[in-house]
Design goal:
Length: 332
């Protein structure tokens, strides 16, 4: 009964959920769901203009050289082998272009790869406001999120296996002190029995509506508007945790713990896949992340701590709207 109430509450206050899926014929990135992805897209757009201008310039120069210095235009060719000015230009200009690209690239790499100091973010935000530096505060909060920083990290360990993912939430512990942990399997394996296996193991009947080679039986669940710190490792061979809409790609390496972070403000369903060749079922090792409001996440966490995995899965079948958090909290 409580599973039904949780599902009905979510449906009642549901909002259209963003589903980040690859589209046939698409020629651009998936819509950005994180500030990391937005910065990557902005950098890509700048590079696209630089590359386009270089291509046009080189094409024009080639055409000019072929016409101006063709055999027809030069019956008697000139006899020289060097031009110092030209050689300096074609050495210095490309070097300056690379320096300019690096000046844009390095800040993005630092932003993506260095886990934020949440205490510093909150303190800097308060300091800017206290000193009346409104414009600087707006610029700062475009990349950093003081409200989320004050709430702390949501920590998730992500382990790659042949061929599924194990998610561990070290901050969610049951009465025995054991952390919430579960295995997430892709429901498509390229076999005729996929639907039968899925329905018999989960009791669900929504197989035909799930995106091929992307859906899983038990997805990773995180709250919207929170800093997510994740750690990756692998049990066997190298895997790669990749979600295009987040611009996140971190290798899971046996014997090594890699770290990353992201923050998603918009609730929805986001998909990715293992991006490191890892064996025969590499194509059937998807990642599904459900971003839900905090109250819905708290409800899911309580069910998971109680060992009710199917009830927890039912509670996030429909993603609630952000404004419904208080209503969902009342159903706990």
């Amino acid at each position: 009964m409580r599973h039904l109430l949780a599902a009905l509450s979510a449906m009642l206050f549901a909002a259209p959920a963003l589903a980040a899926l690859p589209e046939d014929g698409a020629i651009n990135f998936q819509p950005a769901a994180t500030r990391i992805a937005e910065r990557v897209h902005e950098f890509h757009n700048v590079l696209l203009w630089i590359i386009a201008l270089i291509t046009v310039l080189v094409t024009v120069l080639l055409i000019w050289v072929m016409v101006r210095y063709s055999r027809a235009a030069n019956k008697t060719p000139r006899k020289f082998s060097h031009n110092t000015t030209v050689e300096v230009i074609w050495t210095v200009v490309p070097a300056l272009i690379l320096v300019g690209i690096a000046s844009l690239s390095f800040p993005n790499l630092f932003y993506q790869n260095v886990t934020p100091n949440l205490g510093e973010i909150a303190a800097t935000s308060k300091s800017l406001l206290a000193n009346g530096k409104t414009a600087q505060h707006l610029a700062y909060t475009k990349n950093y999120f003081p409200d989320a920083a004050e709430k702390g990290f949501v920590n998730v360990k992500i382990q790659g296996n042949q061929w599924n993912w194990t998610y561990t939430y070290p901050d969610l512990v049951d009465e025995t002190g054991a952390a919430v942990e579960f295995v997430s399997n892709g429901i498509h394996k390229g076999r005729p029995t996929d639907k039968e296996n899925y329905e018999s193991l989960t009791g669900r009947t929504d197989f035909d509506t799930q995106p091929t080679n992307l859906a899983v039986d038990y997805p990773m669940v995180i709250p919207a508007g929170r800093y997510i710190r994740y750690y990756t490792a692998a049990a066997d061979v190298i895997h790669s945790f990749t979600i295009p809409a987040f611009a996140v790609k971190t290798d899971a390496v046996p014997g090594r713990l890699n770290e990353g972070w992201f923050l998603v403000e918009e609730p929805g369903i986001y998909y990715g896949q293992c991006s490191e060749l890892c064996g025969i079922d590499h194509a059937y090792m998807p990642i599904e992340v459900r971003v839900v409001p905090q109250a819905q996440y708290d409800r899911w966490a309580e069910l998971m701590k109680a060992g009710d995995f199917d009830g927890a899965a039912a509670s996030i079948t429909t993603i609630a709207a952000l404004e419904s958090e208080t209503q969902l909290a009342s159903t706990n």
